[in-house]
Amino acid sequence: MPYMLISTQIRMEAGPTFVGDGDSDKELMERLWAKPSQQLGNEFVEYMTALAPRQVLNILEKEGWKVVQTSTLVKIAAGGFLVGSTALYLAQKSVQRKVRGLPHYTESLRIISDHERAKNALGPPIKVGSVDLADRRHNYVGKTTSMLRIPVTGTVSCGYLEVMAVRDDESAPFVTAKIRLVMDDVAVSVYDTGRWAEVDADKSVQSS
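Structure (tokenized):
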């Protein structure tokens, strides 16, 4: 009997919803409008759909799937639920450490520390926050491109460092191509080699 796990990281009322892993039935994933994605720092692929969990369950019920009740197990094994929550927290911390170990992460902090205009805009000392792992639009690692959105807070203002990096292939390290400081919907260019513009141009050519 096949099994399927669905979960959500944000809101159960709205989604998005995680509906499968790399070995899931691709035809079923298509019927759920799910696309494969890889969260920053993870080595596995999971399928995500913009549908809310309720909509996913409605589709699955029409296809003959049945919901397996798990609340009783949670009530009986409350300690196990706590252990699971702790494990999730530790996993998140582990991923954050991997993110901080990325070459363009460390390079971006070095560049911003030498940029007087950015430092004055934020107000030293500047504190660095954790990236939002659920925000896959702004935080991802691809084959040849990567983007990070790093929260930064100073004594004057706060915002994000948007760090774009490129590499020639998967065996090469990422090199910082562009850094933007975003504060109050205003983006200021801090560093730009021009290589990220080349990536955008290539994407435009491929889509045309």
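The helical segments are 26-31, 53-62, 71-76, 78-100, 103-113, 116-122, 195-207. Residues 42 and 95 are 7 Å apart (CA to CA).
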